[in-house]
């Protein structure tokens, strides 16, 4: 069965979309059939992979509000035969209002994924910068959560709230969800701030190692993603970093991260 | 009467909070009584100015959902006699649901500001990274909009949607709103990407110069805010950049920006 991974952080601009685009690309590139899903009305993952929002007849908006299935909503990404994308469009912003009087509004996505015979090994969901209905749908459907984190004070501050939300989801609609890992993004090597924040993070996780909290087993990936302007250039060309500049520091970092990801999750 | 300025960009992590904290601090520091308001449940502006979210009896959540007035919700910021803060707390995230069946839910903030005899020259509102009810309340109450923009492709892409939302607000609840300016944040000097994005931005604005669109007069501030790690360190100390490291590039940039802001808005 597909392993569903929600990539979440309500703090804005910490590298969620960049991580789903590049990690997803490389996991597929190593032969693991992978689908990435855009669940942010900004449609940045869709753009990042070179697809025009609103053009595909089916997408994640349809997945939530109509009978469209995940397989129907997925399109194969040019240049990577093991990669699929469920794109989105700006209309997704209306889903929250349109579903507001549905009792099961938090479970729409879970119903479209759980128990379905989907042709992918991994399904990775890019979420918007909020803890709204769209993000709760991703948490309801996910087996695991990956948290991209910029090693800054404001970004670390919100982590507690995010983890509490995941705990609530575990006590409610999704009793098996767990936090698989934290990915340090936009890392500025040599800054005191990054070192302090990372130390704080390890101390925080250490304190809950032997608990049954959803983040008790969370791993801070050893490979950090360094700040690298090429990672900000490639979305403008509709390409992953591996297509745009395979020898850049950004490509090296995401390639090494992919190796650590597959060690953690295993391959088939 | 107070001049109300909404600082908005639904793209996450582009420098909204950092700009309200530091620009607000310096405008007040030059003698113009200023209030900054935290309208993001993350409460990052509140933290940035050294205040604990949820401690103050009145805040922006109360302002929206109770009879609390703006003056009651404001507290004076230690160390800057002309600066006030309307803090917030995480409960603000619930305001959207709590107000969902109020006909006038978009006008709550406007009613608390318009026509009130407030003791400030400027009121500057920090918004969350979305175009939800909280942001629409800020747009409903604002005379002007300032748009912090990181010169990256993904950040520029969302500008069109933001401007269209402002146009809708102008055609509906706030007929005089205008876009006063765009502030380039986290600017990485010497990168091709920044130069390209800035060129695109100028071209886009040039095309609507003689129209009656809300952004026809929008100015791209000549002073950019360069990427500078001190700006990411100071929130962790609950200080503006001017308290934390007044000689840093970050303090120089925000100081020069303040001069250009007051040229545009005038002083009293
Ligand atoms: N390691 C990096 N080095 C340099 N730039 C980066 C890096 N990772 C991401 N970026 C750029 O920084 C910006 C923010 O990244 P991204 O959009 O992936 O974050 P996000 O968390 O998805 O944002 P949002 O909260 O708006 O969804 C983008 O312009 C992206 O191109
Ligand atoms: N010029 C700069 N140089 C370096 N770091 C910066 C700069 N401006 C802001 N930062 C840091 O970058 C991160 C994002 O900035 P900030 O939180 O102000 O953006 P935002 O738009 O308010 O984000 P959100 O969308 O989550 O509200 C923060 O950690 C902040 O400390
Ligand atoms: Mg994103
Ligand atoms: Mg902010």
Give the tally of β-strands of chain A.
8
What small molecules accompany the polymer chains? adenosine-5'-triphosphate, magnesium ion
- Measured between the Cα atoms of the first and last residue of chain A, the distance is 11 Å
> Structural class per helix/strand content of chain A?
alpha/beta
Quaternary organization: homodimer
What does the radius of gyration of chain A come to?
17 Å
Uncertain spans of chain A = none
List the helices and strands and how they pair.
The structure is a homodimer of 268-residue chains.
Chain A: E1 3-7, H1 16-29, E2 34-38, H2 44-48, H3 60-65, H4 70-73, E3 75-76, E4 83-86, H5 95-98, H6 108-113, E5 122-126, H7 133-141, E6 144-149, H8 153-157, H9 159-171, E7 178-184, H10 192-206, E8 219-220, H11 229-233, H12 241-244, H13 249-265
Parallel strand pairs in A: 1-5, 1-6, 2-4, 2-5, 6-7, 7-8
Antiparallel strand pairs in A: 3-4
The complex binds adenosine-5'-triphosphate (2 copies) and magnesium ion (2 copies).
Please, could you describe this protein's structure?
The structure is a homodimer of 268-residue chains. Chain A has helices spanning 16-29, 44-48, 60-65, 70-73, 95-98, 108-113, 133-141, 153-157, 159-171, 192-206, 229-233, 241-244, 249-265, and strands spanning 3-7, 34-38, 75-76, 83-86, 122-126, 144-149, 178-184, 219-220. Chain A has 13 helices and eight strands. Chain A has an eight-stranded mixed β-sheet with strand order 3-4-2-5-1-6-7-8, with helices on both faces. The mean pLDDT of chain A is 96. Chain A is an alpha/beta fold. In chain A, 40% of the residues lie in helices and 13% in strands. In chain A, helix 1 (16-29) packs across helix 13 (249-265). Chain A starts with a strand and ends with a helix. The A-B interface holds A 10-14, 17, 42, 44, 47-48, 90, 93, 100, 128-132, 150, 152-154, 157-158, 161, 188, 191-193, 229, 232-233, 235-236 and B 10-14, 17, 42, 44, 47-48, 90, 93, 100, 128-132, 150, 152-154, 157-158, 161, 188, 191-193, 229, 232-233, 235-236. One adenosine-5'-triphosphate sits between chains A (12-18, 40, 44, 129, 185-186, 225, 227-229, 231-232, 235) and B (11-13, 129, 152, 154-155). One magnesium ion binds next to helix 1 of chain A.
